[in-house]
Here is the input.
Amino acid sequence: MVFLNGRFLPIEEAKVPVLDRGFIFGDGVYELVPVYSRVPFRLDEHLARLERSLAGVKMRNPYSQAQWRATLYRLIDAQPFQDQGVYFQVTRGVAKRDHSFPQGAEPTVFMMANPLVTPPRELVENGAAAVTAQDNRWLRCDIKSISLIGNCLLRQASAEVGAAETILFRDGKLTEASASNVFAVKQGVILTPPKSNLILPGITYDVICELALANGLPLEFREVDESEVRAADEVWVTSSSKEVLAIVSLDGAKVGQGRPGPAFARMYQLYQEFKQKVMRAGKREAVSA
Ligand SMILES: Cc1ncc(COP(=O)(O)O)c(C=O)c1O
Here is the structure.
């Protein structure tokens, strides 16, 4: 069961006209909300980011926060599985093809819940491989745009060599990865680029930073040189589906000892505990680290 423009229906019956600006121009924004045991994780923050993405592309939010929540809960309850990744997609709607914005088009709103696939134990314990690439995307990476061809091309570079992610550098500085944020650890200090127009403000990134601060782990928000990433003791990628995952090889070279490090082990555990806390609190309460 999916949601399209006010109706719940089987995915096979969900159809969007070919003139939808999402199809024609990639003109829209999206969110992915992880749901554990039917409890959405950091929903307020995801809805706030959706609002910012919509404002960033000059679209009005078609629904109130209460409407988004009610629709999400109905969708969650309609699924036969417990852990879900729920996509929210909003496009500028259907209109005669013209780059400039149409007058009076109704936004298209689509939501679907997939089973949430987090990294299997084997990957958590042994870590993953990544490659690197120049970040050649646009300069509004802070908008969660459905125009993902830049990210798809970059992700494909790692997929082709069987690696889990493509870590990106712009002008010699770390930005993020094709579908995740990046942290490096050197001598116990966790380093990550500050939020800017060059990275997506990850909801998981915020959780990781909150957990570091709440547990007294040294954390620095600053520009991170490409050479620092290559010489780091540990590298992690974070996202709603990857949670926090250790990168143990970069372009075929070992990161640190070539195994997930102690800072990762600690952060992974803190993250899992935090998830448990959210689940125990139930679906309508916000939980902080
Ligand atoms: C480019 C990019 N950066 C970072 C992230 C991580 O964001 P979040 O933690 O909110 O899932 C994503 C998630 O899909 C992404 O696509």
